[in-house]
Automatic annotation (TrEMBL):
Compartments where found: Mitochondrion
Reaction catalysis annotation: S-sulfanylglutathione + O2 + H2O = sulfite + glutathione + 2 H(+)
Oligomeric form and interacting partners: Homodimer. Monomer. Interacts with TST. May interact with RELA.
UniProt protein name: Persulfide dioxygenase ETHE1, mitochondrial
Organism in which the protein naturally occurs: Psylliodes chrysocephalus
GO MF annotation terms: metal ion binding; sulfur dioxygenase activity
InterPro entries: Metallo-B-lactamas, Mito_Persulfide_Diox, POD-like_MBL-fold, RibonucZ/Hydroxyglut_hydro
Record-listed E.C. numbers: 1.13.11.18
Length: 281
């Protein structure tokens, strides 16, 4: 069964996002394993893709706070994590790639144009392979220079990172963002895939878990417009900066330090909140 055949089942509350979904495609790709995981803080989706036969799996856009959770899931399913993959350098959360490398011994992957550190760099047209399955790399810059989308033709699914979100797209006002570039990335690449292709984004802030190419071509309030209208919209969003803009996506040698700083910051903030409550009582 292809992922898209169970698409309607995915439009459910986020609390069931980690349920088991193992799919066998009628197009020859059998035992394609898929999980969608969620981070409540940054509303980030992490995807676990695997081959249920040879046990190789990858994680797309892991979040550091959930690295242990994700690795536990990998172990529970008797899988072997070979890659931690990032669609781009994230500003709103710290990637779990470094932590997962220490837990699982996997390799990290990111686009060569990202400027981030990784074990393996990918470019347009490359393939990321796990077991019998593969993702084709599309370079889709505009949100950042190094943004990539990963297309799995056999399952008719695409992981778009922040290039294309559900009824939205990633911001283009920092991190080398460029609205016109993003417009062309989405229209000239993602929107040339079959309309039935299911889109799995890096985030959603409204509880929707997936969309399709045809749906976004028709209904995306930004990207269904002309280039000029899109650029005007993106240049007038007036968004505040993400809380973790100063953090790097691949904190390779400093991973543990970054985790410790994050832990201390959150603990300190919790203490301040408790003290404030006491004062008000
Ligand atoms: Fe982003």
């Amino acid at each position: 069964m292809k992922i898209k055949t169970v698409f309607s089942r995915l439009l459910q509350p986020l609390t069931i996002a980690t349920r088991n979904m193992t799919h066998t495609s009628s197009t020859g790709s059998k035992n394609f394993l898929f999980r969608q995981l969620f981070d409540n803080t940054s509303c980030t989706y992490t995807y676990l893709l695997g081959d249920a036969d040879n046990k190789e799996c990858i994680l797309i856009d892991p979040v550091v706070e959930h690295a242990k959770r994700d690795f536990q899931l990998v172990k529970d399913l008797n899988l072997n994590l070979i890659y931690a993959v990032n669609t781009h350098m994230h500003a709103d959360h710290i990637t779990g790639s470094g932590y997962l490398k220490s837990l699982a011994g996997c390799k990290s992957i990111i686009s060569r144009n990202s400027g981030a550190q990784a074990d393996i760099f990918v470019d347009e047209g490359d393939f990321i392979r796990f077991g019998d399955h593969k993702l084709k790399v599309f370079s889709t810059p505009g949100h950042t220079n190094g943004c990539c989308s990963f297309y799995c033709q056999e399952q008719e699914i695409v992981f778009t990172g922040d290039a294309l979100l559900i009824r939205g797209c990633g911001r283009t006002d920092f991190q080398e963002g460029d609205a016109a570039t993003l417009y062309h990335s989405v229209n000239d690449k993602i929107f040339t895939l079959p309309d039935s292709t299911i889109v799995y984004p890096a985030h959603d802030y409204h509880g929707i878990m997936a969309t399709s190419v045809g749906e976004e071509k028709r209904l995306n309030p930004r990207l269904s417009k002309s280039l000029k209208e899109f650029v005007d919209i993106m240049n007038n969003l007036n968004l505040s900066y993400p809380k973790q803009i100063a953090q790097k996506v691949i904190p390779k040698p400093n991973t543990m330090l970054a985790i410790m700083i994050l832990f201390v910051k959150r603990t300190f903030s919790a203490i301040i909140q408790e003290v404030a409550k006491w004062k008000n009582e």
